[in-house]
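so im writing up the methods section and need the Peptidase record in one place, dumping it here so i stop losing it
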Amino acid sequence: MSITVLDTCSAMRRILTAPVADRVGLLRSMLEPNKGMYRYHPGGVDLVATHLETSGFPVDRDEERCLDALDTLAAAGAWERMRCALDDALTVLLEATPGLKVPDITVLFVLGDPGDEHFMGPCRGVTGFGGISGHISITFWPFPENVERLEATAVHELHHNLRWAPGGVVWDPMTVTVGEHIVGEGLADAFARQLYGDELGYARIGVPHLHDDEVFDKVLTGLDVTGMQNFTAWVHGDPGAERFGLTPVGLPMGAGYAAGNRLVDTYLAATGQTAAQALHADSSEIIAATLGRG
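--- predicted struct ---
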């Protein structure tokens, strides 16, 4: 088993300084090692189109802004920091979960689009996806608050990757609930907090609503909702739903993260477990610790 953090720093610099006509081909080559992340998509996906649709850096504008951002990340040692954080986190998870099956994992770390108002605003310059075993993708803009949370962002996605890996918790697209997704976000944040403390460990989008009882109560009404097309509204809130043309449910950005943290913290306090030990905890048991139901 190994964790490979791709050298996207060099690759992005080549793309951003190449003639515009050559950039799409270079971008496709950079993205190719992570194509397995889309193995469940019928017919596959166009890697470049998906990159651009999910707030990845543009290939036809904002070159100087992106190159400056790349310099900031390189100066901060972002790739090495991420590599070390993931290795350290994996050690903690292996110690906490004897017999844990760990796949080889490829990590794609790319700049986001500085012209994307949703990414730079409501998303606070960070999105990540670690739910497909063996692949982690992080799209990032180096706001100072994000750079200092780089390690926490990476290990959050690692927790996802191993929770829903083969041999772990089954994510069945036909039956999975909002509750499972929200609990997963809470556990991943709790793991990042276990390693880096509360100041750095929380995903930034959830922080404004951590103690908002009205938001928490509203999220609880959606825990049994199924259908992954409905999850964005309950987990990321109305701004995320509106971005992707989905139906809002009356929740602010990051509501599901805030609620997930509260549910998980109640469970961890009741059981005395760490987030690493609760890697494969059943979401219904976690929810029951708060709601008293299985």
